[in-house]
Amino acid sequence: MVNTLDPQNMNNFSEASVSIEIETEDMTLNIGPQHPSTHGVLRLVAKVDGEKVHDVKPVLGYMHRGYEKLAEVRSYPQITTLVNRIDWVAGFSNEIPFIAGAERLMEIEVPERAKHIRLILNEMARISSHFVFNGAYALEVGALTPIFYAMEDRERVLDLIESVTGGRFHPNFNRIGGVKPAAGAGPTSKKNIQDLPAGFYRDTKVAMEKVIKAADQFQNLIGGNEVFKKRTKNVGILTPEIAEAYGVSGPILRASGVKSDLRTHTDYLPYDQFDFEIPVGENGDCYDRWDVRVKEMVESAKIVLQAIDSMPSGPLQAKVPKVIKVPKGRTYVRAENPKGEMGYYIISDGGLGPYRLKVRTASFSNISILPIMLEGALLPDLIAIMGSLDFVLGDVDR
Amino acid sequence: MTDVLIKVGFLALAALNGAIIFTIMDVKGASWMQRRPGPLHVGLRGFIFPVAEILKFVQKEDIIPTEVDRPVFKWAPAYVMVSCVALFAVVPMSPTLVVADIELGVFFALAISSLGTIGVLTAGWSSANKYSLMGGLRAAGQLIAYELPLILAVVGVVIQAETMSLVGIVEKQIEWGVPFVFGGQLIGFLIFMVAATAEMMRVPFDMPIGESELTMGFMTEYSGIRFLIFYISEYMNMFILCAIASTLFLGGYHVPLLPTEWVNFYGPVVLLTKTAILGFILVAIRWSQPRFREDQLQNLAWKILIPASLVNILVTAIMKVGF
Q: Chain B within 8 Å of A37 (Cβ-Cβ)?
């Protein structure tokens, strides 16, 4: 604002000088790629005025590993090893839509028992992913203790996944037409132990009860904390319209009040046989996004308990040819992963591997709302909002 | 001259030992609350852990970035530490066991305690790092907001004790028979502790460090022994502010029923015990609470703590004059 000493304007002069604000130039703050709370290597170029954020540009690509291209020169059984590593917090969930897509193209009917085992492990992966979120999010708003509790509880679930698949993060357990015979069953040991490990049902029941207890504990310890509520309630509100327009999915979309869960209206796993609720938020703020995930943990544990009780017997594998060749065609399979909707678009030309594989990951679409949500936020809110989106950089860049 | 040197040496050693005890308490308290067995078992049940910690920092390279304002950057940690040590001079361990029993002891303590923030601000400014700068500015904002309730909370005690000397304040509490915290200064004590927590930049008021936001705040660019000095000063500050709080509100070196002629022997133990209890409360808060936001902190200071402490002063004054 410029003030010149013009006698005609002298009347307005006093008013004008009052309304002059101290305007400072915006500072460019480079958050990441190495920063404690960017979940790895996300980089945000933020324009800040003091504590206030004016403009944010996410910069991606620091974690790009070219999985889509690598998949073109690999055979179908080899690709599960790759897709495992897209969202490494819930490695098992990444395999399922891909395998389901290949099976759909080959028109293989998977045995019920294999489907149930897949479903149980998928829900366990969801639980372990939400445990990580719970710990990490508390850490981001400044509470240092919950992550230790979360990690301890998650270990119980990971132990179960390991006892079945042999891997904690990267199970590589799904085979086209079913699942791999359980851990311990190699070429030397014959068919008698090629199923779920001994004591799995009992251990799972104990672990799931503990998960429900842990979720309750989180509701008390974190959700009941006044400071946590102050930091997250009415912070980073995402309206359902914007969320849908930007292709946001998963718990973030549900926290905004949209009751959308692919588990209920797709058939990649037999979720329709089980009885579970879909937690939905009201305001779409950070607290709701946290709350929805904690409630989802309980629902997942309930699904696992039901699946254990109704586990069908039968083979783990359908009959598949020795050399897997997927017939010519294309398909898109989508699934509800812990982070949101994950989809694989497989184009096959009849060869050993896909002609082209397009991966739709949840985190990539979810962080596309960052610039909108962060405009005008305070710097501490930036961290709180970013953390509540629960993205994994491997899932963003793949 | 030797007299002064002995006193300064005593101060530095006492403050350092207090800091080390508080470090042990913090680390073991954290591991206990977080169910981590490590610090409860390794190295004589975790008690020689600070030795390892100090040796680690001492043998690390002291990196000074090229763009920093070298003299300011180098001296900022020392500035913070000296202001902490000087604060301890007025804390009495017994009527005679005090380095400097000055008439304006409370005034001196409050004045010195705010000096450390200048060290923090210069550290943030000279680091040539935007995160450091923001950390330093947050520390300055916090100082302005919390120095006021801290002083106002103490004013109640001063009115009640009719003196500003810390020894005099303890004597008054002995005369009364109850410490001031039970003698009408409970609100003053709570305000003092909240403001002191903000002053020593501990959770839930640790925004100047704010690890998840500002990496390490004003300490981001520091490494090696300079970082160690900041680290130790944090615990030193915590120890000394807790000691001052127990002197002002909890009766200092005195406990009822013990013979007063032996106060030189049990005085330090009593004071340290009270200090450690307050310290443990701070440790428990640190490991169980998230961090406030900067504007919420300012709201808390200006809208709740300062009016509450003003009311506290008013009530104390009326009680003093009226009864």
A: yes
When mean pLDDT is compared across A44-48, A343-347, B198-202, B261-265, the lowest value belongs to B261-265
Of A301-315, B227-241, B256-270, the least confident: B256-270
Does B288 contact A143 at a Cβ distance shorter than 8 Å? yes
SS3 content of chain B, % helix, strand, coil (to 5): 75, 0, 25
The domain locations on chain A are 67-364
Q: What is the ipTM of this complex?
A: 0.83
Q: Report residue A325's pLDDT band, with 50, 70 and 90 as the boundaries.
A: confident
Nearest residue in chain A measured CA to CA from B211: A36
Residue with tokens 């804390």, as numbered in its chain: B91
Say how many C-beta atoms besides its own lie within 10 A of residue B181's C-beta.
Answer: 21
Q: Would the CB atoms of A142 and B33 count as touching at under 8 Å?
A: no
Contact B212 A37 (CB under 8 A): yes
Whether residue B291 and residue A51 make contact (CB cut-off 8 A), yes or no, is no
- The residue of chain B with its CA nearest to that of A221 is B288
**B304 in contact with chain A, both atoms CB, cutoff 8 A:** no
> Mean pLDDT for chain A?
83
Q: What is the pLDDT of residue A185?
A: 45
- The CATH T-level fold of domain A67-364 is Cytochrome-c3 Hydrogenase; chain B (1.10.645)
Q: A with B: how many residue pairs have Cβ under 8 Å apart?
A: 79
Q: Could you tell me the two tokens for A131?
A: 């445990």
User: Is there a contact between B85 and B236 (Cβ–Cβ < 8 Å)?
Assistant: yes
pTM value is: 0.85
Candidate from B30, B34, B295 with C-beta closest to A378 = B295
Whether A186 has its CB under 8 Å from any CB of chain B: the answer is: no
